[in-house]
């Protein structure tokens, strides 16, 4: 199959034989054996040119794919014996960068000091090619794009507030002051699932808030919420730390928000470089570790 592919790519048996360091007769014999085994002609040859038959065209495309996989397997095997090194530019939302991405990449750098990461926290979806970003971590619905993407985890946001924030029974939740992130609109709708004893009950409610405080940083939003400026959402792993310190409480006890999905994305045509894969796998593992501690809040 490799000989056949080389004949097509080279344009002639002679050129293929020279490239492969084989005799023309050996190359011709390879083609004859291949066509005999398949029971179909792959090439139409004249004294001046050669053309692929329809079956030959399809077979050639499959041979190219096979050669690409073999080349990638060879490169991966060689890379696995080499200590990872080099530059990598990673972007992620503010909510994940400091809590998940940076610690995961930091552990890799501690293990492989020649890795040189650039980490950019950004809640906007930037163009990876224009910005030179190697790996993007994104949250939410899978975007329609030409980027290669892989689902690497999930987490849940928690609607929360400061312990001293008034949430009396007679106060409608919709009337609470709402702290919004820059990616949210002024009208914010949350759909909650009801839970009881760690079990989801088939009953849900929707609540609409009017945002009156805005920020472009999850940590600024967190500071506003903890100070009593309003209610807002933060990822469960951030909420958990605030609850431990006594600076946050759930604003919807007995209800939870649906999980959101996290994707790792890159713009490489084929299998991404080893460094991109290593960082993606490390971030995925960190998300999985966080999910172990996920509880109904």
Automatic annotation (TrEMBL):
<dbReference type="InterPro" id="IPR036390">
    <property type="entry name" value="WH_DNA-bd_sf"/>
</dbReference>
<keyword id="KW-0238">DNA-binding</keyword>
<protein>
    <submittedName>
        <fullName>LysR family transcriptional regulator</fullName>
    </submittedName>
</protein>
<dbReference type="InterPro" id="IPR011991">
    <property type="entry name" value="ArsR-like_HTH"/>
</dbReference>
<dbReference type="Pfam" id="PF00126">
    <property type="entry name" value="HTH_1"/>
</dbReference>
<dbReference type="GO" id="GO:0006351">
    <property type="term" value="P:DNA-templated transcription"/>
</dbReference>
<dbReference type="GO" id="GO:0003700">
    <property type="term" value="F:DNA-binding transcription factor activity"/>
</dbReference>
<dbReference type="InterPro" id="IPR005119">
    <property type="entry name" value="LysR_subst-bd"/>
</dbReference>
<dbReference type="Pfam" id="PF03466">
    <property type="entry name" value="LysR_substrate"/>
</dbReference>
<dbReference type="GO" id="GO:0043565">
    <property type="term" value="F:sequence-specific DNA binding"/>
</dbReference>
<dbReference type="InterPro" id="IPR000847">
    <property type="entry name" value="LysR_HTH_N"/>
</dbReference>
<comment type="similarity">
    <text>Belongs to the LysR transcriptional regulatory family.</text>
</comment>
<dbReference type="InterPro" id="IPR058163">
    <property type="entry name" value="LysR-type_TF_proteobact-type"/>
</dbReference>
<keyword id="KW-0804">Transcription</keyword>
<feature type="domain" description="HTH lysR-type">
    <location>
        <begin position="1"/>
        <end position="53"/>
    </location>
</feature>
<dbReference type="InterPro" id="IPR036388">
    <property type="entry name" value="WH-like_DNA-bd_sf"/>
</dbReference>
<keyword id="KW-0805">Transcription regulation</keyword>
């Amino acid at each position: 199959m490799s000989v056949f592919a080389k004949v097509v790519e080279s344009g002639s048996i002679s050129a293929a034989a020279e490239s492969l360091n084989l005799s023309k007769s050996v190359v011709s014999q390879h083609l004859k054996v291949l066509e005999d085994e398949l029971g179909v002609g792959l090439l139409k040859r004249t004294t001046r040119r050669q053309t692929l038959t329809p079956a030959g065209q399809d077979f050639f495309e499959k041979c190219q794919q096979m050669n690409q996989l073999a080349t990638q397997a060879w490169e991966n095997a060689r890379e696995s014996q080499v200590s990872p090194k080099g530059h990598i530019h990673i972007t992620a939302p503010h909510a994940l960068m400091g809590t998940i991405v940076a610690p995961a990449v930091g552990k890799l750098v501690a293990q492989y000091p020649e890795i040189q990461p650039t980490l950019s926290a950004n809640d906007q979806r930037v163009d990876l090619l224009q910005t030179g970003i190697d790996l993007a971590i994104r949250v939410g619905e899978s975007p329609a794009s030409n980027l290669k993407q892989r689902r690497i985890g999930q987490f849940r946001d928690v609607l929360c507030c400061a312990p001293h924030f008034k949430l009396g029974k007679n106060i409608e939740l919709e009337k609470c002051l709402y702290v919004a992130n820059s990616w949210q609109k002024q009208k914010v709708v949350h759909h909650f699932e009801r839970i009881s004893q760690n079990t989801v009950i088939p009953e849900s409610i929707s609540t609409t808030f009017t945002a009156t405080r805005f920020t472009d940083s999850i940590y600024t939003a967190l500071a506003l919420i903890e100070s009593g400026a309003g209610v807002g959402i933060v990822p469960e792993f951030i909420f958990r730390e605030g609850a431990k310190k006594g600076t946050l409480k759930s604003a919807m006890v007995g209800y939870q928000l649906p999980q959101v999905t996290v994707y790792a994305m890159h713009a490489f045509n084929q299998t991404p470089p080893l460094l991109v894969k290593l960082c993606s796998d490390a971030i995925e593992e960190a998300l999985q570790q966080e999910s172990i501690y996920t509880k109904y809040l």
